[in-house]
Amino acid sequence: MLVEVSSDVFKSYGKTREKIKFHSGLNAVVGGRRGANSIGKSTFLMILDFVFGGENYTVESVNDIKEVGPHLIKFAFKDQEGKYFYYSRSTEAPKKVNVCDEKYEVEHTIKLTQFQDELLKIYGITIPDVTFRGMVGNFIRVHPLAPSRLIEYPLQAADGQKQSQQIDNFEKLFDSYREINTLKTIYEELKNRSSALRSASKYDYVRPAKNKTVYNSNKGRIDYLQKQIETLKVENEKGLLDLKVEQNDSTRELIQDINRQRDIKSDILMQIAAVKRNQGIKTKVKKQDYESLKLFFPDLNTKYLDEVENFHLKLSKILDSEIKEALNELQDQLGLVNQTIQILEGKVKKINSTPSVDMLLIEKISRYDSEIQSLQKANDLYNEKQQINGEKKESKLRWDKAVEKELNITQQDINNEMRKLNTEVCGSDKVYAPIMNIKDGNHYTFNTSADTGTGSEYKGLILFDIACLKLSELPLLIHDSLLFTNIEMDRVENIIKLYSKLKKQVFISIDRTEELDERIQNIIKQNQVLKLDRGANELFGRTWSLKEEKED
Fold first, then answer.
1. What is the pTM for the complete model shown?
2. Which residues of 311-340 are buried (b: 16+ CB within 10 A; e: fewer)?
3. Which DSSP state fits 109?
4. H-helix or E-strand containing 26?
């Protein structure tokens, strides 16, 4: 847990503040009696986010940093075995964290990502594939997300974050994610195998059979060639092969093959020529052409014609890119065909100069065997592709079912816990509780049925956070006073009671405590870690007019 935070810029009545000490459970940053603004409550919570590896402080508190100057934040943690870890982090180098001794003398410096990994170990978090910020980021309710987004999408940690990523991070909070992740890993491996097969086939001379029809045709051709090979062997053993006839037959077959390849080459050349004719067509209409048209159409809008012409030119650039890609592919095909023709012509020359029947036989059998190998490889690749696709489909189905099952369980647990907490906060089980509905791995909703009041929505957000804290390995919560603003006072009091019962650390900012019940005031006093107010007792010992209306 976090045990202390300090900085030379933290001031109170002209003096540097003592180290701010923390404990398990509730840690309250308390504002003045009149709810004074611009005293540093939210800023201090933002600094806590900074201490927990966040980056919003140096982005959202630029004015503070400008006023007090670049500064160093010192902080310490204690792990579950009681061992202390000391660090410091500067606003001038927020991507680095200093590892220190107990006097905060720097021993060495590590990257921010390394520090975040160390926090996982300090807190004893064992969830696979989770990051510390991925866990805590959206439960630190001081970031600049619009409040309306928070109450509607409580899993959102940053602007623009997809719901699928929010749900993914949510899954990782719970042990059930391990099973889901195993199935996801299997699916991703199959996807990679499928992609690798496609890539290999793209650059290989032999490609998988396109469909079952081609596959069966290949099988038929393989059977025919194997029979031809067996026939040649038998005839040779019987002495039935005639050298000249065999030479002529072999040459004729090779010439037929050559002619077929030349036909293919001709088709490719025609395609290349057609592609080249379409390449770089960007004929721009000249101004004088417009003037000629205006003789017949006096009202002609030449500006509109220019816009259309410019659109066509932009479109042609896109088409040129596609044409270039097609041309490169055709050139590759042409190279393969030329190579094949060259090989076949060499074989013709070799046969006509070979007097040996055995050599002719070997050559012919070799050609047949080569074709068999190519056809068999094409069919083998087809089988492999079908197998991978089948396994991938089945794997995706198992993954989706596991996600649905586990998310349903998690959502049910969260909703049940929120109902219990809601009854405790509202003093009745008749009051609507917030409900999370995870539709699938990509979509979810969060609301309080039939109660869309602002206070009810913020209450729901707080209860959701507390439920997650209780049911998962989530190590902490940070709640700004903004969350309490529209909630009924008696419910705020009961929420503070909930905070005080938690064993994990909860950091809140709160003001107007004089309006609370005396028992609740006592709870806050017992858990107060920092008291701020106007008149030289602000976080930095002073205030500045620039922040008057920006921070509470």
1. 0.65
2. eeeeebeeeeeebeebbeebeebbeebeeb
3. E
4. strand 26-30
